[in-house]
Specification:
By secondary structure, this protein is α+β, with helices and mostly antiparallel strands. It has helices at 91-94, 108-119, 127-141, 155-166, 174-181, 185-196, 200-217, 222-228, 234-245, 249-259, and strands spanning 21-25, 30-34, 39-53, 56-60, 64-68, 74-89, 102-105, 148-150. It folds into two domains: 21-148, Jelly Rolls (Sandwich); 152-259, Orthogonal Bundle (Arc Repressor Mutant, subunit A), CATH 1.10.10. Helix content is 43%, strand content 22%. Helix 2 (108-119) packs antiparallel against helix 3, helix 4 (155-166) packs across helix 5 (174-181) and helix 8 packs across helix 9. This is HTH-type transcriptional regulator RipA. It comes from Streptomyces griseoluteus. One of its GO terms (molecular function) is sequence-specific DNA binding.
Length: 260
């Protein structure tokens, strides 16, 4: 993801062990790798965030919420000025959710429940617990929108994806990438499918979408984002972004302005 500006956290801000609460974080703020004994939901009411684990990276724009099960080591990076909400999920509720990190769509009811649980202290005994069961029920029924960018084990594939991470906009073909890492085009194509569960084209498109979300969230124009992330023209970027995110980049940015 882009690292062109140094993080400048605002206050209050969470430390790596935080499980619940709200904070305003500036562009580029990071939480170092850590884990929790219980599950955790992280929601960007404004802004966007990336959650990284050994299995890869998940990105959540402002209409998604990240889920990390207990004991998964993970880190977070935030994009744009982020209104982040951290919510603890007790072990007895975790079993109702998927057993791997993921990202879910946020319904209007789920959004309001997440905000209510992180905005203010509990006013009546048991109120937060009852509302948390509503959150879990909503997540069970929510569509899983992982925006997952898996990482490889094979050394050749790891070298190839590292080159793409370094410069997502590069127009390198699979054959050219293979020559740079010492693998044939057919071998590299097979590795993308067997290790990462997707084609080279889909993996690189997902990588570019990750970068595009960060840039759009930080205020870059749609046209400039398209060029910076490797699309030959804004139209092809808009089509790819809409297919993955479910809305055009312009509408996504308009939603960010509405939330702020």
């Amino acid at each position: 993801m882009p690292k062109d500006r140094q993080p400048t956290p605002t206050h209050p801000h969470p430390d790596a062990t935080s499980l619940q609460g709200a904070a305003t974080l500036s562009h580029g703020y990071q939480l170092a790798p850590h884990s929790h004994a219980e599950g955790q939901l992280v929601y960007a009411a404004a802004g966007a965030l990336a959650t990284a684990t050994e299995r890869g990276t998940w990105v959540a724009p402002a209409n998604r919420v990240t889920w990390t099960p207990p004991h998964f080591t993970h880190s977070h990076r935030f994009y744009g000025e982020t209104d982040v909400r951290l919510l603890q999920v007790p072990l007895h509720l975790c079993a109702q959710l998927v057993d791997h990190p993921s990202v879910f769509t946020v319904s209007p009811l789920l959004r309001e429940a997440l905000l209510a649980l992180t905005d203010s202290p509990e006013r009546r005994p048991g109120a937060h617990g009852r509302l948390l069961t509503v959150v879990v029920d909503e997540l069970v029924d929510a569509a899983e929108q992982s925006l997952h960018l898996p990482e490889a084990d094979d050394d050749r594939l790891r070298a190839a994806t590292a080159l793409l991470h370094k410069d997502p906009a590069q127009p390198t073909t699979l054959a050219e990438l293979g020559r740079r890492v010492g693998a044939g085009e057919r071998t590299l194509s097979r590795l993308f499918h067997t290790e990462l569960g997707m084609s080279f084209h889909r993996w690189r498109t997902t990588l570019r979408i990750h970068h595009a979300l960060a840039r759009l969230t930080d205020g870059m124009s749609v046209t400039d984002t398209a060029v910076a992330c490797g699309w030959s023209n804004p139209s092809s970027f808009i089509d790819a972004f809409t297919a993955v995110i479910g809305q055009t980049p312009g509408r996504y940015q308009a939603g960010l302005r509405h939330r702020s």
